[in-house]
Amino acid sequence: MLTWETTPELSCAERSAFGLDLGFADVAAAEDWLGSSWAELAEAGVTAVTLVDGGEAVMGPMSLDA
């Protein structure tokens, strides 16, 4: 299961509110979600995200600076 990790790290409640606790079946689904959510994450103070699979970085870190 793929998940996005944030910098800085969000609390469990914040992760849940953004849907980060759900995980993604594949990279395409994770990228689609990020494409529609990055601005809200940035507004919440997230500066970068990393896509991980089983603790291993798959992609990133990627800056959320506009």
Taking all residues together, what is the mean pLDDT? 95
Q: Which strand order do you get reading across the main beta sheet?
A: 1-2-3
Number of helices: 2
Helix and strand composition category:
alpha+beta
What number of structural domains do the residues give? Answer: 1
Helix content: 25-40%
Low-confidence region ranges:
none
How do the helices and strands follow one another from N- to C-terminus?
A: EHHEE
Distance between the termini: 28 Å
Q: How many DSSP E strands?
A: 3
Percent of residues in beta strands: 25-35%
Principal-axis shape: globular
Q: What Rg do the Cα atoms give? A: 11 Å
Sheet of most strands: 3 strands, antiparallel
Describe this structure in words.
- There is one protein chain.
- The chain has helices at residues 12-18, 27-43; strands spanning 2-7, 48-53, 56-63.
- The radius of gyration is 11 Å and the shape is globular.
- The longest helix has 17 residues, at 27-43.
- It is an alpha+beta fold and 66 residues long.
- Helices cover 36% and strands 30% of the residues.
- It has one domain (2-63).
- The protein has a 3-stranded antiparallel beta sheet with strand order 1-2-3, with helices on one face.
- It is built from 2 helices and 3 strands, in the order βααββ.
- The model has no long low-confidence stretch (mean pLDDT 95).
